[in-house]
Amino acid sequence: MREKIIYIFAAAAAVLLVRNLYVILLVLPDEAQQGPIYRIMFFHIPSAITCFIGFLAAGISSAIYLATKNPRNDAIAVASTEVSLAFATVVLATGSIWARIIWGIWWTWDARLTSMLVCWLLYASYLMLRRAIDEPTQRAKFSAVLSIFAFSDVIIVWKSIEWWRTQHPGPVLSIRTGGGQMNPAMEAAIYWNLLALILFGLVLVLVRLRQEEMRREIDGMRQMAHAI
Amino acid sequence: MVEARNLMYMFYGFLAVWVILVAYVVSLAARERNLKKELMRVRSLIDERERAR
After folding, report:
1. What is the ipTM of this complex?
2. What is the pTM for the complete model shown?
3. Could you tell me if residue A47 is inside a domain?
4. What is the domain count for chain A?
5. CATH number of domain containing A92
6. Which residue among A78, A103, A212, B51 has its CA within the 20 to 30 Å range from the CA of A179?
7. Test mutation, B12, B19, B44, chain A, max A CBs within 10 A
8. pLDDT tens, residue by residue, A65-83
9. Which residues 17-36 of B have a C-beta within 8 angstroms of A?
10. B23-31 — which CB contacts under 8 Å span 24+ positions?
11. Which residues constitute the domain of residue A89?
């Protein structure tokens, strides 16, 4: 059943990505002030939202793990975190390339950029922590605590453009501004690509989750082999 | 000139997206392959030990 879901979601994500690339590159016009470089935001913004959703899922799963001690929740947390970190890398890379043209610099230590970098480092350290601890229960407990703590930075990243005056542009999506900040066709393209990336992210999480289950099965069989 | 640079950086941006995501997918596939190999190895080890008992 899970295999079927993976294939269906992957096919849907692929079709949507092809359709979205066509719209982004060939249908939508250049932005008046930024020129073609603005098209990066069609991946930058959806990747950011996708990674935040993944980190939220990891935080919730970690909290459930701490309450129930069910190893499946730990597996969901690590799968979501790893996939979200890949999308967070996309956010930092695309943002930096966009900034090089629009601001003339690759990087600046403003609140949004810095908090996003801290977010990336926190979740990278989550994965490093997991590698450092061999005992599964202890590993799951410590990493769950770190995941919940790290999510507080996601909230700071999300709100930073409202709390501080940043060089990073303010909110543009109508769900945050109430509308009027962006051409509706451009905003629709962002939502379509968000859907595509969420589906793609879900596929990756399901594959990663299957690997965690396989690893657990291997550990169990190793213990059995030692007992024989 | 400025327009060409703008377009080139847009291309770099799209390239970065695909390189990062494809690299992650490749790493996932490699890990899956290794896990399957490991699973087979442990299974055959158990079979061997059970036969030896």
Report:
1. 0.92
2. 0.94
3. yes
4. 1
5. 1.20.120
6. A103
7. B12
8. 999 999 999 999 999 999 9
9. 17, 20-21, 24-25, 28, 31-32, 35-36
10. B24/A83, B24/A86, B24/A204, B25/A204, B28/A204, B28/A207, B28/A208, B28/A211, B31/A211
11. 2-27+37-166+185-227
